[in-house]
User: Fold this.
Amino acid sequence: MRSCHYHFLLALVPALLVAAGLSALPGGGSATRQLHLTAQALPDSPLLDSLLRADAGLTPVIARASDYELQIIYTQINRDARNQPHFVQHSFHLDARQYFNPASLVKLPTAALALEKLNLLKQPGLNRRSPMATRTAFRCQTAAPYNPAADSDRVNTVGNYIKRMLLVSDNAAYNRLYEFLGQRPLNERLAQLGYPQARIVRRFAPCDTVANRHTNPIDFYSSNTKQLIYQQKAAFNTVAFNYPLGQVLKGKAYQAGGRIIQKPYDFTTANYLPLQNATDILKAIIFPEAAPAKQQFQLTTTDYAFLRYYLHQTPHGSGYPPYASGSYFDAYKKYLYYGRSPKAPAKPALHIYNVVGMSHGYLADVAYFADSVQNSEFMLSAVIYVNQDDIINDGAYEYTSVGLPFLKRLGQVIQQYEATRPRSYSPDLASFFTPETVR
Assistant:
């Protein structure tokens, strides 16, 4: 057993950090400083615009797209004679300067980077099945003890935390992997991968910004001998981050402590993951061979298969026992196409590999669709803000009346268009429908 801090290999990161504003600002980092974003608002795609405006189920939202802070990315995938994918992106109101709360979208890069860290540690016996014990060392931290159980699916491991995150968007599981990665290494690695404006700086817990800079000590055990094989010390990000959008205020008021505070809610120090970043990260996981070299995760073939399996599986279909109850219905984490309807059974011929977010009035879904009946595939990402009273945290959001029906119809409209879209070469999607053995 060896004790050490983990640091990513980041020879090129210092220059990226300065350019991205990841280094400290004078006085600990003023979040109100406005940084230059290279990503500007893109003109709307005529094709996507016409598809959106032609459907009566979408037009009520499209007509007020700015009010709903709507952003959409539709990516066509064209295969060549060797079945290699080529991507054509269409967007609607896409603007990295338009803040939205990414909520659980941050779980996808966190999951991928946790697997990558296990690989880079090169610690004998350490893998995604290694039992782990998260301890505490600072305020707002919670413990997750070593729990040797007869049922391996209930043991605290990196792999099981990823299953919980990707199947039902479990927040506690995300917190454990955020702590495993550490705030600074997590964001430095995102910058190195080409996402310098992304910020994953918070647990899903009521911790202040200083507490979120502190991450827990963690012990790992051999899954065979149960002996301690690796220890990660408590860590602290000594250099506070600044924020790409400067100060971010939303709403006319917010609720806290049971009362309404009559001023905008401050998202300045919240997590931030532009829709384009989330789309590119999913693309790099579904199509790693097509990603630019600098955006490729250091993952094994098995790692990619593991992520893809739990990205598309339903809670019941996954075979993961903790989610066998009826409360975890097929569309629990499928907003596009299914609208998170408890009555919508999953279609075996339609695989949707996705990650979703739901928080503070924002709904988001980032997905890859593969349809074995229509022999079609595409990517679709969208975020919509449904908060008619403009009060944050009051729980009065139009998720079920506006947001989810819109995302359901959006997925159906694009899927129907893709079913008849001419292609020079028909895609071979067999790899997406071959029975999977990775668990």
Q: What stands out?
A: The chain has a mean pLDDT of 92. The first helix runs from residue 13 to 20. The CA atoms of residues 135 and 143 lie 5 Å apart.
